[in-house]
Design brief:
The chain has 68 residues and is α/β, with parallel strands linked by helices. It is built from three helices and five strands; from the N terminus they run βααββββα.
Length: 68
């Protein structure tokens, strides 16, 4: 089964062309932020038993550390 590639917030453009180059499918990382500041991630499609490649840009890593 092919790996699933998912872009972290802000890295969508960086990840656009990678699925074709890496022979993987593109998935979606959905983040819901609750009013109290907590975040609930949801992965689509389901990733059980599959390799997942996360793509992120780290030009300002302190702001992105928790998402990573």
């Amino acid at each position: 089964m092919a790996a699933i590639l998912m872009a972290l917030p802000g890295a969508e453009r960086l990840a656009e062309d990678l699925p074709g180059q890496l022979d993987c499918t593109f998935g979606q990382l959905l983040l819901h932020r609750f009013p109290d500041g907590e975040t609930c991630p949801r992965l689509s499609p389901a990733v059980a038993g599959r390799d997942v490649v996360l793509v992120g840009a780290l030009e300002r890593p302190d702001d992105k550390l928790m998402a990573l």
